[in-house]
Amino acid sequence: MPARGGSGSGSGRVWGMEPRLFELFGSGAGGGLKNKNGTKGKKTSRGRSRGGRSSNNPPYLPPEAEEGNIEYKLKLVNPSQYRFEHLVTQMKWRLQEGRGEAVYQIGVEDNGLLVGLSEEEMKASLKTLRRMAEKVGADITILREREVDYDGDLPRKITEVLVRKVPDNQQFLDLRVAVLGNVDSGKSTLLGVLTQGELDNGRGRARLNLFRHLHEIQSGRTSSISFEILGFNSKGEVVNYSDSRTAEEICESASKMITFIDLAGHHKYLKTTIFGLTSYCPDFAMLVVSANTGIAGTTREHLGLAMALKVPFFIVVSKVDLCSRATVERTLRQLERVLKQPGCNKLPLLVNSDDDAVTAAQQFAQSPSITPIFALSSVSGDNLDLLKVFLNILPPLTNSEEQEELMQQLTEFQVDEIYTVPEVGTVVGGTLYSGICKEGEKLVVGPTDQGDFLELKVCSIQRNRSACRVLRAGQAATLALGSFDRSLLRKGMVMVSPEMNPTICSVFEAEIVLLFHATTFRKGFQVTVHVGNVRQTAIVEELHGKDKLRTGEKAVVRFRFIKHPEYLKLGAKLLFREGVTKGIGHVTNLRGIGTDASDA
């Protein structure tokens, strides 16, 4: 999984983003924009007719793809031994493509035609599928069944089945979800309910275990980044702290892990929130909106950040137990209006049933324009199960081939957190962007203030608070460095293979779009630059071909870091801010240490 701050595929295409994205930033910008589509926006709640049959069933699904983790099977009734072995090999391939997960559509032809099976044929097909899953060490879960109208009067069904491989050697599927939203929208409380397995008492009891500092407990406001885990076993059942004492037990019994990155909602902690989004490479973002206040405070800004960094997001409307139905519907209409405005161009999909949750998870991963919306309560538990169904089925964004390519590259670990642990020594936390990292491996860390790299040895590795011998690309972990001097480390450093020749620079150029600025953006302006895990103040040395920039304009700009050189990559996504000023772009040119403006 390429880090969002790194030079992943297409990360250099800043102009590919919506041209009106800047309308999400600034004071009240774009709030009252009308939907250009007018009456074309379709209602998203899915009506269901009597008999449990969907009222708008399509006669076709898209044709089966050769790649990916979705397999169509018309029927699996009493296959021969040779055919059975072939089917098992096929299942292994689909599981590999989905990194341990595959979805089987039974009763569907390869061209996507919904034929359906009789009850007897469906029972026999599911029995064969269960045998196939046992052969590869996986479990199956029926996601949904639906009746289809095909030739004949007999009722015919198609069944959608999730196949998930039982984890071996700690290789569970790990998805990272950043949690965004305005202060007091119920982010930490929702995470507390999901991970602890107990509903909130309405006064914030569920969130107490998530806070890291005394002042957070006293104020009830998150100011730092914390991580919470929610597991699903191979049968799709929730594994959390309610029936597992420790994180190690959750890791042992889970085959899929959702790591929530709890970010701060208050505006004064915005730099921490941006760092969490750029540095921790989330796969998805969950935007929490309070039903009683609607889109308020930093909600619009957080939505804009997720859009700018191209992090797919879904929305949770919380606290529905505090409001009347009319208030909840008003908030949903407000969200729909913002999502459909030209800066977003999203299609809201309100999730009201398990069937909707399955559809939302599959379409959300396939189409970047779909935005699922959940309306729930952490106190009464209303619709909480729909969110769990969605998270259980949510597939990874990268397939096994992309993962393998990243693992073949040289080791690169981004340092996001630094600790000193008694009897262990210096510990760093972060994400392995590429390669493989093993216990006992020798790496170099830097750049220092002088631009040097220092040798060190990885003594041990922990992932989700449990020991791990091998770390693979895209995984987050903490590495113990023994007696290595902590004062030599800082956030924003990288640990890389000694063979790598890292690109260190103090001056760089970037192609940028100014998302919001009150007046004009000029040479000499100082901004805080975020590139991956790098966060440092830089001065604008030159705007190529322009004297000044206004909101929505673009240019190539030369920046100089004011403190120390940093490790950057060409094409890396860049986000800068200063007060209400915000911009986004990508790195186009790197210049070495000590480069004068006259040389540049």
From TrEMBL:
According to UniProt, the name of this protein is GTP-binding protein 2
Question: What SUPFAM superfamilies does UniProt report for this protein, alphabetically?
Answer: EF-Tu/eEF-1alpha/eIF2-gamma C-terminal domain, P-loop containing nucleoside triphosphate hydrolases, Translation proteins
What keywords are annotated for this sequence in UniProt? GTP-binding, Nucleotide-binding
A single Gene Ontology molecular function, please? translation elongation factor activity
The UniProt regions of compositional bias labelled Basic residues, in chain numbering, are 37-51
> What lineage does UniProt assign to this protein's organism?
Eukaryota, Metazoa, Chordata, Craniata, Vertebrata
Which InterPro entries does this entry report, sorted A to Z?
Answer: EF-Tu_GTPase, EFTu-like_2, GTPBP1-like, P-loop_NTPase, T_Tr_GTP-bd_dom, Transl_B-barrel_sf, Transl_elong_EF1A/Init_IF2_C
Q: Where is this region: Disordered?
A: 26-66
Locate the Tr-type G domain: which residues? 172-400
Please indicate which superkingdom the organism of origin belongs to: Eukaryota
Family classification = Belongs to the TRAFAC class translation factor GTPase superfamily. Classic translation factor GTPase family. EF-Tu/EF-1A subfamily.
Organism of origin is: Microcaecilia unicolor
Primary gene name: GTPBP2
